[in-house]
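Collaborator request, handled under Task 6.
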Amino acid sequence: MLTAVSDGRAGINAALVKRLITTQCPQWSRLPVVPVAVDGWDNRTYRLGDDMTVRLPTAAGYAPAVDKECNWLPRLAPALPVAVPTVLAKGAPGAGYPYPWSVRGWLPGEMASPERIDDMTQFATGLAGFILALQRCDPKGGPLAGAHSGYRGASPAHYDDETRRCITALSGRIDTVRATETWQAALEAQWRGTPVWFHGDIGGNNLLVTDGKLSAVIDFGTSGTGDPACDLVIAWTMLREECREAFRHTVGQDDGTWARARGWALWKSLLTLTQCSDPRDERVAIHLDVIDAVLADHERFA
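Structure tokens returned to the collaborator:
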């Protein structure tokens, strides 16, 4: 989730980052610290000079991702077809800040959106190639899906009660019968495979493009090993028509995995809609479109 920059979440601001760098990474203490223009919710990110960033979790629940990314990104990176964050240092709690944090190399590029992509079909197949490469990485010892991944990579049944409450709350705004059928199909398509690596939050905000092409994938905070269905959600949230078909054809996956992926997409869009109190909120139209696409996809392939 992205948010406009506003210093102070979890007590984090540029002055704190400067103190942490000065005391724990003094070799970089003379470099300027500047907040990025658009930031995440789970972590705050600051530019450190021209070539680095500092990334700080905003709450205790997000802190375990620091060790996970520091341990696993260097092992995954050589097998992946596009750049991923390079961890340069891991910081400890200090200066009144209670969580571990990290310094990474700056990755150039812009957040992916259709207007920044030259060829959406090529983008879709390139992204599918990244997902397949990630799935081929050795899962031995990798963190099994659970609380650290927001239960992505586990069964969508973890969110069963929440999803059904959302469907009920949205009666009159969505087709609740079709939504319930699609959700039930996701639960019934139980995953029984061998764990593979998943990213857990593949969306435009975590994909970078350079010169109109996919160049990097960032934010592995919800990554882990388990069911890869959660990584297919972008088929409905960003891809359209022929691009979606190109993605589907390239990434493969069995029918059950696609059914669970529809469940993940449906859960998130239903939840977001119930949180939008203003019908003029731009997210309303976006997530209604996602729900329509997911329900149509279920009817086509179920």
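The cover message to the collaborator said: "The first strand starts at residue 2 and ends at 4. The first helix runs from residue 14 to 24. Please let us know whether this matches your experimental observations."
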